Amino acid sequence: MALHAWQNYKLYAWGQNELKPLSKRAHSGSIFGSYDLGATIVDGLDTLYIMGLKDEYEEGRDWIKRKFSLDNISADLSVFETNIRFVGGLLTLYAFTGDPLYKERAQHVADKLLPAFRTPTGIPYALVNLKTGHSKNYGWASGGSSILSEFGTLHLEFSYLSDITGNPTYRERVQNIRQFLKDIEKPNGLYPNYLNPKTGKWGQLHMSLGALGDSYYEYLLKSWIQSGQSDEEARTMFDEAMLAISKKMVQKSAEGLTYVSDMKFDKLEYKMDHLACFSGGLFALGAATRENENTEKFMSIGKGITNTCHESYIRSDTGLGPEAFRFTEAAEARALKSNEKYYILRPETFESYFIMWRLTHEQKYRDWGWEAVQALEKYCRTPNGYSGVRNVYQKDPQKDDVQQSFFLAETLKYLYLLFSDDSLLPLDKWVFNTEAHPIPIKNSNDLYRMASSSENNNQNVV
Q1: Cβ atoms of 350 and 418 closer than 8 Å
Q2: Residue 255 in contact with residue 248, Cβ under 8 Å?
Q3: Residue 265, SS3 per DSSP
């Protein structure tokens, strides 16, 4: 599947961001626009490396060496997406290979993002212009707010980048965000999705473990894991946040399905995003890495959410899960609105299958993954790559004609790892960023590649 996706990208969209497999050309409407940033290459290359696809890996490395640069590009790029896909992908390749090319390029990208942090609070803006450094937020985001899942999902990459370059700037930037969020008043212990970077005040009181919130919570746990479990502040903040979420937002439906509802102004929406399906694995990983009074509760919630996300898949006609699903008297774990019925090759459910498999070795998680592989082959494979579908409840759904870069980076990686031995990227040596790029764990992984003290001395000037 990875070869089919890669070879067609190479044939029809090489060097551009993503492939349109039906049109057989590049997808200019990608979140990275029509510039030739090679998003599929940088995002997908570690997957090829893990799979042992040497020739394809070398093609990608050669393109990064010869072509990859963010200089002279006058585009507004998402700080969050550029960090998780580009910085994350390059950092993983550096850890895997030790090739300085990847470290240099990761630093090149991160440096382009730094102007976004120039705000009164240090909470970065969402968008940065690569040429001018001018930064701003999305017009739609609650009165000029930054978004929790975006500014809260930089910690793993920036901390690791400081360690391998010896330049403390990156860690300082994200530590400042952490400190701000630790000190701010949280309504009922919950974090709203919007925060104004100028005033330091919360925007609309929307809370979610799906879109706009999700990976902030993920990075609290994973920053602690990545630090060799020394970043106690991160673990404490994680436990407190997940406890509040489990009290206020985790629900059981009439049929007994466990899910995490979005919340608006203290009112539950009885809706869960596909994006929140990663949280099954997150709760379980939290339980498995620390014994305390929450361990059993977190593991039980993790198993319940993973099961519910599987239900959202098997209750559709394609065996693929919708973008969001609801819990009402009429339907459970089903999308009810037409704009929630699509599936864009998302990985989150398979991510939870993978984590649950590694932690429990219950065969059902592999079985569920294999069901999904067959559904992907039946409904998403085209002669020239893979495409999302517009309605998972139709027997012959229309395709959306986009092969997302995260299909190679995440979806296929998690499915491959689900069927691999535990010794491939073991969870006590690697922690996955929110784009499925494995980052080595400090003090337990020889591939961490900490900068030498001579590099430290050279890097104190920005």
Answers
A1: yes
A2: no
A3: coil
| Residue whose C-alpha is closest to residue 192's, from 121, 142, 123, 135 | 142
What gap in Å lies between CA 323 and CA 409, rounded to an integer?
A: 19
Residue with tokens 């701000």: 180
Helix 295-314 and helix 232-248, axial crossing angle in degrees, nearest 10 = 60
What gap in Å lies between CA 246 and CA 317, rounded to an integer?
Answer: 31
Q: How many CB atoms lie under 10 A from the CB of residue 418?
A: 22
For residue 171, what are its two tokens? 């860690």
Q: Say how far apart CA 377 and CA 205 lie, in whole Å.
A: 40
**Four-residue CA torsion sign, 257, 258, 263, 266:** positive
In the set 218, 323, 351, 410, the catalytic residue is 323
Residues 27-75: tens digit of each pLDDT: 999 899 899 999 999 999 999 999 999 999 999 999 999 999 999 899 9
What is the chain's mean pLDDT, rounded?
Answer: 97
For this structure, is 157 an active site residue? Answer: no
Say how far apart CA 437 and CA 82 lie, in whole Å: 13
**pLDDT for res 461:** 35
User: What's the mean pLDDT in 413-439?
Assistant: 98
pTM above 0.85, yes or no: yes
If we measure between CA atoms, which residue out of 349, 436, 433, 343 comes closest to residue 2?
A: 436
Angstrom distance (rounded) from CA 19 to CA 6: 9
**Residue 462: its pLDDT value, please?**
33
* Span 254-290, pLDDT tens digits: 999 999 999 999 999 999 999 999 999 999 999 999 9
Task: Please give the angle made by the CA atoms of 253, 239 and 223, to the nearest 5 degrees.
Answer: 120
DSSP letters of 165-184?
A: H--THHHHHHHHHHHHHHHS
Asked whether 346 and 340 are in contact (CB, 8 A), the reply is no
